[in-house]
Write a structure and sequence with these properties.
The complex is a heterodimer. Chain A contains twelve helices and three strands. By secondary structure, chain A is mostly helical. Classes of the chains: A mainly alpha, B mainly alpha.
Chain lengths: ~300, ~100
């Protein structure tokens, strides 16, 4: 049996936001890191890459504004979901302790556990900061005409949050898709459904309230390739952590890193992983549409 | 339905200026900025640029610490969450690995 986990609006919002964020990382990071120049060349030069960057920035802003207003209106009309709970922080600590075998029982979560709540609240905040600094750079004659040197300060903030977003993508995708029980892909956000058996363990407080759908799920078997996929993602993450040390060492001015081999390998590997996530997002979107059309 | 229409109208109003200027790199068509030497004295400009540099350096000083801390936090969190999902997976499969 399945349970209905996400509405059509939530699925569309997730698809548009994740696709545009991945495209913004692909077209944006090469501006900061010269070892990713090949990405700019792949898109046919700087003009095309920047046009794509602005285009996907618009898709992202449109998605955040549209769905932000939509979900607020839904909440005001009494149909929205309650995301925050009073014991969220307490439960997050208990959950981490349970993972590390320092607590015997895992706290019981409702529809969203603490890490999902952090995603739902954190992503719009990050997008707002990165969006505002991006708009300042897009329209310099409006925002920095009186002091053009401020452009570089906004660029630093924009690039800082872009690198942070890259870490976020690695954490989000690594945790929700490459872990045992989820690999190769957690399809919940694309189909809107979750196996009842899985939900009973992960979201026990929500199961009784959820709408049931009588379709028998295929038995899930963990593919050992999941270990390889997580290892690749983890190595890229490790090299990215090293990259931040190099960036900090250089004063972070413009976020340009010197010709360090580990930095170069880390950035290029990360870019390939981001490309893979982009393909997976498109596949998930198409799979969700195909499943949604089935009776 | 009404919620979707309201959200769409507000989104289009907010995004209209960006859609119009998506392919423009110098929207003002003004090649001499307000901070040009024609309007601002060299002394004033120096003061302005130094204040911006101070601001940039202040951002850098915080950003370089924050980015390293955030990176380490994400790395550790990924590891802990991997262990957590492994335990959850075993529970879902009734104790099997």
């Amino acid at each position: 049996m399945y349970l209905k986990r996400f509405s059509a609006s939530q699925k569309i919002a997730h698809f548009l936001i994740s696709f545009s964020i991945l495209m913004l990382l692909i077209t944006g990071l090469p501006i900061t890191f010269s070892s990713l120049r090949w990405v700019i060349n792949t898109f046919g030069g700087s003009d095309n890459t920047m046009l794509l960057h602005r285009f996907f920035a618009l898709i992202l802003l449109a998605s955040v504004v549209y769905f932000g207003i939509y979900f607020i209106l839904e909440r005001l009309s009494g149909r929205g979901e309650r995301i925050l709970s009073a014991d969220l922080i307490k439960n997050s600590i208990k959950d981490l302790l349970w993972a590390l075998n320092l607590s015997k029982e895992r706290p019981k979560f409702d529809k969203y556990d603490w890490i999902m709540v952090a995603d739902i609240i954190g992503v719009p905040i990050l997008i707002i900061i990165i969006g505002i600094t991006g708009i300042f750079m897009w329209f310099p004659h409006l925002f920095v005409a009186n002091n053009p040197a401020l452009f570089f300060a906004f660029r630093t903030i924009h690039a800082f949050f872009a690198v942070f977003f890259l870490f976020f993508v690695f954490a989000h995708a690594g945790i929700l898709h490459l872990t045992p029980g989820n690999f190769p892909m957690n399809m919940s956000i694309f189909t809107g459904l979750i196996e009842a058996k899985k939900a009973k363990v992960e979201h026990p407080l929500w199961v009784e309230k959820a709408e049931k759908i009588n379709i028998e799920p295929k038995p899930h078997k963990f593919n050992p390739l999941g270990y390889v996929a997580f290892a690749i993602s983890f190595i890229a993450l490790l090299l990215l952590v090293y990259t931040t040390f190099v960036m900090a060492d250089e004063g972070l001015a413009g976020l340009r890193v010197k010709g360090d081999m580990f930095v170069s390998v880390g950035l290029n590997l990360s870019m390939l992983v981001v490309f893979a996530y982009l393909v997976a997002t498109v596949y998930g979107g198409l799979y969700g549409i195909a499943k949604g059309r089935q009776p | 339905m009404w919620k979707g229409i309201i959200a769409l109208v507000i989104t289009l109003i907010i995004l209209a200026p960006f859609i119009v200027s998506i392919n423009e790199v110098n929207q003002s068509k003004d090649y001499i900025t307000k901070s040009s030497y024609r309007f601002v004295s060299p002394e004033e400009r120096q003061k302005m640029y130094l204040s911006a540099e101070k601001f940039d350096k202040m951002i850098n000083s915080y950003a370089k610490i924050l980015i390293v801390l955030a990176a380490i936090a994400v790395l550790l969190l990924s590891l802990v969450e991997y262990i957590k999902f492994y335990k959850i997976y075993k529970e879902e499969r009734g104790g099997g690995g």
